[in-house]
Amino acid sequence: MYLKRKVDSILEKLIRQPLHNPILVAGMRQCGKTESIRQFGRTHFEYVNEINFWRNEDAKQIFDGSLEVDNLIRLITLEFPSFEFVPGKTLLFLDEIQDCPRARLALKSFKDDGRFEVIASDSYLGVNIDPPKANPTPKPEGAEELIEMHTLDFEEFLWAKGYASSSIAFLEECFQKRKPIPSSVHEKLLSVYNEYLCVGGFPESVLRFIESGSFKNAHDKNKSLVFDIKGDPSKRKNAQGGPLYAPSEIARIQKAFDLIPSFALSDNKRFVASRIEGNGFQRVDAINYLVNAGVAFKVHNVSAPSLPLSIGKVESDYKLLYTDIGLLTASFTYEEIKATIRDQLGVNKGYLYEAAVGETLHKTGLAPYYFGKPSKLEIDYVISYDGHATLLEAKAKTGNTKSAKTVMADSSHYGKTKLIKIGSYNIEETGDILTIPCYLTFLLGHNEDDLVPVTL
Fold it and tell me: In sequence order, what are the beta bridge partners of 419?
């Protein structure tokens, strides 16, 4: 069973553009890159030639010499005799291209040649895999279209659950017109959202849940994925075939990973790096590994919730969250998963909702910040939305938004701000305050000006 993904329509749009570049799909391991590219290849090309540089290290040697396309094809077909290269009918899929930097450089050659489509995947776009040397491999500047891919968001989860395009279009219409969702639908979607919190967005976990209806199957898969993700640094190899990271570096990366739930599910969500052993640079390296590998993301504090937000970013003050909510609930016991489904978490449900809202904002590309002062003035998230600095308060049910209202009342200092309350509420708009249900957070990323609109 193939899960429909948003990247499908992005690939479709890019491939139709004349003189387009080779495409690089980047995202954390296990987010579904390989299967989506394979599915796209099966439906659009007569011949699909796939090289995985992680599993087939010998293939890297193909790119050691001349990167002229005819030479590369000659060497590829010697290594893979079953491959066919027919102009206009062939896709070359270079999987895990980060393990062969010269293959990524070769994308420029394929662009200039123009006879064959090339799509590559990269699981460690921000991680320095290329070993230090006098002349590091350059990047193919201007010769690749970069697509960032994540695990399934809630909209894609609805697709996996069988929700029709018309149903999601109706939800978007309600959102755009600021009219409440019918109560029966609202209650149902709150329940489905709780499912998403427990299952998360890793394709294999979602498939297990869809096919078996078992939360335990999905939970077990997420715990297995956590084990794999924590073990990834120890699998990375340098040019000589030895370990890329020392045992102490691996231990710090794993410690940073393990600390995320203890801060995300607490009142004080600011990540305290001093809990990781080592000096300041070593701690930063461990955290940056998780961020660059797409496993976690930072939500920085801002000195003031005023546009442009990036100017006020406080580098040393941030929340650290997983890029998939399933990694967070994987830290739950199965009994706690059942309590989540039954809506019995109590005050901790609010923490879980806040983390889930942050995850969704990150996936939409809205670049969330937060605002916190020693005076206890704190806003869960701040984004640039619809031309305004917009405050977001994520609450499981109803909650105090005193801090947000304090900021909104002081426009002379903070400028014009608006507020979006996200929780178990229905849709309602009063003045500069918009209330939306948690399951519609993904719609904040829908924009008529987006490069690639989602096909529903």
Answer: 391, 433
CA angle 196, 319, 257 (to 5 degrees): 70
**Cα gap 202→336, rounded to integer Å:** 20
CA 120 to CA 144: how far, in whole Å?
9
Q: Which of 161, 151, 67, 70 is nearest to 116 (CA)?
A: 70
Give the tens place of pLDDT for each residue, 168-220.
Answer: 999 999 999 999 999 999 999 999 999 999 999 999 999 999 999 999 999 99
Strand locations in 7-110, DSSP E? 23-26, 47-52, 90-95
CB 206 within 8 A of CB 157: yes
Closest CA to 230 of 95, 30, 34, 54: 30
Cα–Cα distances in angstroms (integers) from residue 158 to residues 115, 152, 177, 330, in the given order: 38, 10, 21, 21
The whole-angstrom separation of Cα 356 and Cα 362 is: 10
Tens-digit pLDDT profile for residues 270-325: 999 999 999 999 999 999 999 999 999 999 999 999 999 999 999 999 999 999 99
Rounded Cα distance between 365 and 387, Å, is 15
Q: Where are the domains of the chain?
A: 6-148, 154-445
> At how many degrees (to 10) do helices 215-235 and 183-199 cross?
40
Relative orientation angle of helices 203-212 and 215-235, to the nearest 10 degrees: 160
What b/e string do you get for 315-335 counting C-beta neighbours within 10 Å, with b at 16 or more?
eebbbbbbbbbbbbbbbbeee
CATH number of this structure's domain 6-148: 3.40.50.300
Sheet with strand 428-430: strands edge to edge: 313-322, 296-302, 369-372, 378-385, 388-394, 417-423, 433-437, 428-430
Nearest residue to 274 via CA among 285, 283, 266: 283
Q: In the beta sheet, which residues pair with residue 25?
A: 121, 147
Query: What span, in angstroms and rounded, lies between the C-alpha atoms of 209 and 221?
Result: 10
